[in-house]
Design goal:
- Keywords: Heme, Iron, Metal-binding.
- It is built from four helices and four strands.
- The chain is of the alpha+beta class.
- The protein has one domain: Roll (Flavocytochrome B2, Chain A, domain 1), CATH 3.10.120.10.
């Protein structure tokens, strides 16, 4: 069972030392173990750590990339939050 995270919880994981979580289409991924392998460089992942990176992800990747890496990097999903 995957864990559910609030946007605030994801934001707390904004560095490699904290797990470097990013959000892509409502799913949460832990990028700390992948940051040095990322073909686009670590700097790009570090810049979006703790944030929703959906827009940036889809600009440079297709669905096959997500399918390939999701099993090892997905740590949970984003909780639905009330919009006030």
């Amino acid at each position: 069972m995957s864990e559910s995270f609030t946007t605030k919880q994801v934001a707390e994981h904004n560095t490699v030392d904290n797990g470097l979580y990013i959000i892509i289409d409502g799913d949460v991924y832990g990028m700390a173990s992948f940051v040095d392998e990322h073909p686009g460089g670590a700097k790009i992942l570090k810049r979006v750590g703790g944030k929703d990176a959906s827009k940036q992800f889809w600009k440079y990747h297709n669905e096959s990339v997500l399918k390939k890496y999701a099993p090892k990097l997905k740590v949970g999903t984003l909780k639905e939050e009330a919009k006030l």
